[in-house]
Amino acid sequence: MEYIKIRFGKNLGQMHSRIQRTIDDMFQRVNPLLSVLPGEVWRPQMDIFETEDAIVIVCEVSGVKKEHLVVEIDSGAVKISGKREDLRESKVLRYHLAEIPYGSFERILMLSVPIDVNEVTASYKDGLLTIKMTKRAHGKAHNIPIENA
User: Fold this and answer.
1) Is the residue at 93 inside a domain?
2) Labelling 92: which of 10, 14, 106, 133 has CA 20 to 30 A away?
3) Res. 147: pLDDT tops 90
């Protein structure tokens, strides 16, 4: 069984400044093939929704192999990155239409509520990456074990 890589990081939200995100979004709207981030070629579409006890992200990444997906999580942000390999057999073709983007992508999503990084699952089926993150309970006491010195 192959697994989707999930890494737990610190301060993912600081990796991508608000100004940089604004510039990225502006260039993406003008021409989706333009990007400020080196190597980033496309931005997969995503749905983010919230249930009573979880936040769920569904990311459309058809054609991306599971081993090329990476999900990094901290309590305030999620970073999803990967690569869709170019499947065209020859680069010397005469295209009539070319809409499928290939190459690397990276999305950093800020979370509206803190999550429990120990309660995260990811699955990949039919081209959809689904990440389910359990919300951290507010007001719930967390006991810290005390060790003998």
Assistant:
1) no
2) 106
3) no
Domain annotation covers residue 142 = no
Q: What is the pTM of this model?
A: 0.68
- Return d(Cα 14, Cα 22) in angstroms, integer: 14
d(CA 105, CA 73): 16
Least Cα distance to 3 among 82, 83, 80, 66 occurs for 66
Q: CATH no. for residue 106?
A: 2.60.40.790
At 24 the three-state DSSP class reads helix
Q: Is 103 helix (H, G, I), strand (E, B) or coil?
A: strand
Residue bearing the bigger pLDDT, 83 or 1? 83
C-alpha pair distances (Å), 33 with each of 41, 78, 89, 97: 6, 23, 21, 14
